[in-house]
Amino acid sequence: MGISERREREKNARRRAILERAKELILQKGVERLTMEDVAQRAELSKATIYLYFSGKEVLLNEICEESARTFLEHFKSIAENGLTGINALKCFWRGYVKLFGHSNEMLIIFEVRSFLNPGQPFVLLESESNTEQVSAILDTLKAIIDQCKDEGIFDPGLDSAMATRLVLSMFSNSMYIASRIPAESRKFSSILEEITNTFRIVLQGFAKEGIDRSLFDIGNA
Amino acid sequence: MGISERREREKNARRRAILERAKELILQKGVERLTMEDVAQRAELSKATIYLYFSGKEVLLNEICEESARTFLEHFKSIAENGLTGINALKCFWRGYVKLFGHSNEMLIIFEVRSFLNPGQPFVLLESESNTEQVSAILDTLKAIIDQCKDEGIFDPGLDSAMATRLVLSMFSNSMYIASRIPAESRKFSSILEEITNTFRIVLQGFAKEGIDRSLFDIGNA
Amino acid sequence: MGISERREREKNARRRAILERAKELILQKGVERLTMEDVAQRAELSKATIYLYFSGKEVLLNEICEESARTFLEHFKSIAENGLTGINALKCFWRGYVKLFGHSNEMLIIFEVRSFLNPGQPFVLLESESNTEQVSAILDTLKAIIDQCKDEGIFDPGLDSAMATRLVLSMFSNSMYIASRIPAESRKFSSILEEITNTFRIVLQGFAKEGIDRSLFDIGNA
Amino acid sequence: MGISERREREKNARRRAILERAKELILQKGVERLTMEDVAQRAELSKATIYLYFSGKEVLLNEICEESARTFLEHFKSIAENGLTGINALKCFWRGYVKLFGHSNEMLIIFEVRSFLNPGQPFVLLESESNTEQVSAILDTLKAIIDQCKDEGIFDPGLDSAMATRLVLSMFSNSMYIASRIPAESRKFSSILEEITNTFRIVLQGFAKEGIDRSLFDIGNA
DNA sequence: AATGAATGAGATTTCATTCAT
DNA sequence: GATGAATGAAATCTCATTCAT
Description:
The structure is a homotetramer. Chain A has two domains: 1-55, Homeodomain-like (Arc Repressor Mutant, subunit A, Orthogonal Bundle), CATH 1.10.10.60; 61-217, Tetracycline Repressor, domain 2, CATH 1.10.357.10. Helix content of chain A is 71%, strand content 0%. In chain A, helix 1 (2-29) packs across helix 2 (36-42), helix 2 (36-42) crosses helix 3 (47-53) and helix 6 (106-117) packs across helix 9 (161-181). Chain A has helices at residues 2-29, 36-42, 47-53, 57-79, 86-103, 106-117, 121-124, 133-151, 161-181, 189-207. By secondary structure, chain A is mostly helical. Chain A is built from ten helices and no strands. The longest helix of chain A has 28 residues, at 2-29. Chain A is elongated, with a radius of gyration of 19 Å. Chains in contact: A-B, C-D. Chains A and B meet through helix 7, helix 9 and helix 10 of A and helix 7, helix 9 and helix 10 of B. Chain B binds a DNA duplex through residues 3, 7, 10-11, 14, 35-37, 45-49, 51-52, 55-57.
C-alpha cells in the first residue's frame, strides 16, 4: 500500500510537472502555437509519455485551465476573509489577480486556453452550463461581489450585475489575450499592469452610483 | 474599351468576392483556423486561383484588414459632418461602428485579423509606426475625438487620452473577438450589440468629468 | 497574298522573339528553373499566347535547341572555306565556338537544353537516330574535321575519331553546363573562356600524334 | 545497454537505407526530379518519417554528398600506400574511381548533387572555402598528385596544376552527369567506363611533358 | 490572333496521434 | 511505465496547361 501510494504521488507530481511546462510554453508562444512535441521536449519526456498522462491535446489544455482556475480561486479564498465590504472584496479580488498575473500568469493562461477551447464563451458564460467547475466558481464569486457593492450603495443600483461581471471578465480576458500575444521577450509586465489597472479603475468609475467619491476606486495603490 | 473596363470590374468583383468569403470564414472559425483551401472552396474556386488574386495568405489577410478599415473609415467620414461637438462625434463613431458591426462585421474582422498579424499590437498601437495606413487613421480619429471631449469639459481633464483610446479600442476589439468565436449559428447580434452598448456606456461614464450628467452618454438610443 | 505573306513574316518574327527571350532566361536561371510564366512575361505576352506558338514547354525547348544549332552551323559555314587543312578547320571551329559562346551564348543553350531534353545523349549521340537534324550536323562536321586531322598526320592514327568527337563535345557541353550554372551576375566570360581554351588545348595535345610540335595547338591566340 | 546499442545501429541502418534509396532515385531521374515523396515511397516509409531522419530536402542531399565523398576518400586511402610515385598514385586514384563508379556510382552522385546544391562550383572550386570538408579533401588529394607528377618530370612543368585539377574533375563530373541522365535501363557501364577511360588517357597525354612515353598513361589496364 | 482567368496535380513541410517493444 | 519510431492528414504554395471570349 505504501508503495502504491508513493506511485500515485509520483504520478501526480509528473502530471503537474507536465502541466507546468506546458504553461510556460503557452506564455512564450501562445496556445495556438503550442505543439505536443514542444511540451514533451520541455518536460524532458517523450511525446508518447505525454499521452500516457493526457489522452490528447484538448484534455491537456483543459487540465491546464482547471488547474490555473483552481490556483486562482485558492489564492482568492486565502486572501478574502469574511465580513469584507464590497469594495474591499473587490480590492482583494484585484490584488489576487495582480499577484497571480504579475508573478505566475495563471490568469493569463486560464483565459487564453479557455478562449481557445471554447470560442465565444464570455457572452454566454453566465447562462451556460458548459462552464467548467472552477471557472464557474470564479464567475459566481465576482458576481457576488458586484451585487454586494450594489447593496452597499457604491455601485449604481440600476447596474445589471450579470452584465457587469461579463464586462470585467472580458476586460481581463482581453488584457490577458493581448499580453499573451506580445512576444515573451518584449513583454513588460509593469506597463501591462499599469494599463490594466487604469482600465479597471475606469470601469469601476463607470459602475459607480452618481455622487460616489472616485478616490474609492484607486485600486492600484491599495 | 468597354471590354477592358468590364474585365477590370469583374476582376475587382472577384477579388472582392474572395475577400468576402474569407471574411465569412474568419467569422465562423477564426483567423487561426482559416486555410487557403477553405477560402478556395467557399469561393468555389481552386486554390491556385486564389493565389492568382493574392500572392499569399498573409497578403490576403492584410487586404481583408485594409479593406475593412477603409470601409469603416468611409462610413465614418460619410456620417461625420464638420463642427460636431465631441460627444456627437463620439455618437457618430458609435453609430458607424454599430452599423458596420451589426450588419457586416467589418470591425470584427479588422481587429481579429490585425491581432493575428501583429500580435500584441494594442498596447503599443499609438506609438508604433507599424500600423497600416487605414488602421492608423482610425486610431488617430478616435484619439482626436477623445481629446475634443476633454477640451469641451465632458471628460476628466486628467484622463490620459492615449490610454483611453487604447481602452476603447481594446474593448471593441475584445467584443469582436468574442463575437467572432461564437459559432455562427448561435450568434445573436442583438444581444451582443446590447452588451457592447452597455459596455461602451459604462466606459464613457468612467471617462466622464465628475458631476457631468450621465444621460449624456446614453449612446445606444442616439 | 501580300497580306498573308506579311502575316507569315510577322508570325515568324514573333516566334523568334519568344525564343530569344526564353534563351535569355535560360542563361540567367538555367533550363530547370525556366517557367512558361517567365517566358511570357519576358516576351511581354500572355502565357496563352506562348502556347499559340509552341504547343508545350518541351516543344519550345526543342525549337530553342534547333535554332541555336542552326545559328552555330551557319556561323561555322560562313567562316569555313573549303580547302582548309584539318588544323585550320579546327581553329575555325574553335573561333566559331568562342565567338558564339562569348557573345551570344548560343552553344551554351544548345547543350544545356539538349541535356535537359535528352538525358544522357552525348554517349550515344553518334549512333543514335534521335538526334535532331541540326545537332547531328554539328557532330558530323566535327567528326569530319577530326578525321581530316588524322589523315593529315597531326592526330594519332589510332585515335577513335567517334570517341574523340564525343570527348570534345562533352568537354564543351560540360563547360557550358558549368557556365550556365554560375549565377549570371558573377559569371565572368573571360575566365571561363580561358579555362575552356586551356582544356581544349590539352585535349588536342592528347589527340596529337607523337612527335608533333605542340605549338600547333595554341588555339587560343589563333 | 545492448538494447540501446541495437537501437542506435538500427537507426543508423535506416538512415543509410534512406540515403541509399535516394541515391538510386538520383541515378534514375537526376537530382532535380527527386522528390521527397519519391524517396519515401522507395524507402517504403511515409514522407513524415523521412523528415524524422532528415530535417529537409537540402539536408538530405548534403548528407548524400558527404557520405559519398567519405566513401570515396576511404576507398582511396585504403588503396593508396605511402611512397607511391605520382603516376602510380594517379592510377590508384583512377582504380578507386572506377571501382566506385562502376559498382556503386558514388562519384556520380557526389558531383551531381553538388552541382545542384552549389551551382557553378567547379570553376571556383579550388579557391572557394564553401566546399564541404570531404569534397575539399578529394580536390586537395588530386592536386597533390598532379603536383607530384610535375615534380617527377612526367607532366609538363608549365602545367597549371590548379587548372589541371579542375579539368580532371570536371571531366569526371561531366561523365557522371551524363551517365546519370541515361535512363537506368539503357545505361551500360562497360561502355561508359571505356569512354571515360579513353578520355582520361587522352587528358593525361595532354598533361604529359613532351617526349614522355605515352604507354605510361595506359591507365585502363592497370 | 490574343489573352485573362482558371485549374489539377504535385512539391515541401508540420503535427497530433498510435503502437510495438 | 516509458519511449522511439512511424504515419495520415493537412497546410502553404507552384506550374504547365486549357478555354471562353
